[in-house]
C-alpha cells in the first residue's frame, strides 16, 4: 500500500474504493463464463475440488455425501457475485457473502434468487458487520485487493469459529506471476485491465506471517498452475497462485 492510499483511507478500513469500483463495474458480466470473469469460471472448479477435500478432512465428512456442510455456517469474504457462495449453499451450508462493491452484492442476490438459494449477502467492511462463529470462512483472490492485509486477516479470524476451517487463495508474487497473470493475461484480454497490482500479491511466507499474527496456523499451500494439456489444476508448483487452509491455534 502506498502512502497516498493510506492517507486517504479511514482508520480500520480494508476496502480500497478504487478496487471496489473496478470490480463493481464488472458485476453485470460476473456470471457470464465467456465474459470478463471467464478466468474465475475456469478457476472455480479447481478451487472447489480443494475446498471439498479440505471440508471432508477437517469435519470428517464422507467424500460421497452430497451436503457435507449441512447444519454448518459458511462465510465468503470478497464474494463478488456469488461464484463460490452458490456451490457452498448447494453443499448444505447456511451461507453469508460479503463484498466491497454494492453492484456485486445486487448481482449476487438476483442470481441466488433465480437459483432458489437462500444466501445472505452483505455489503461493506467485513469488520463492521459483526459476523462471528462461522464453521467455514473463505476468502479467495481477495487479499491482494485489500488495503491492510494484517487487519483483513484479523477480521477473517474474528469471524471463524474456534474449531472452524478457513481457506485462502492468492496469486504469488513471483516473476512468473508478473509475466503471466498481469502482463500476458491483461494484454490478451483474459482478465480486465487494471485487475491486478503485482506488488500487492502475497507470497506464502508473507501469508503465513500474517496468519500467525492473527492467531492462525496456516496449512501447507497447494499451487494452482496452468499447462496446455491440463489447463488450470492443483499442483506442487506455487509460482503462479496458491490455495491454503488455516485454523485457529489450539
TrEMBL record:
One example GO MF annotation: 2-polyprenyl-6-hydroxyphenol methylase activity
One family name in Pfam for this protein: Methyltransf_23
InterPro entries named among the record's database cross-references: SAM-dependent_MTases_sf, UbiG_MeTrfase
Keyword tags: Methyltransferase, S-adenosyl-L-methionine, Transferase, Ubiquinone biosynthesis
Gene Ontology annotations of biological process type: methylation
Protein origin, superkingdom: Bacteria
EC number(s) per entry: 2.1.1.222, 2.1.1.64
NCBIfam families: UbiG
Protein name: Bifunctional 2-polyprenyl-6-hydroxyphenol methylase/3-demethylubiquinol 3-O-methyltransferase UbiG
Organism field: Novosphingobium clariflavum
Gene that specifies this protein: ubiG
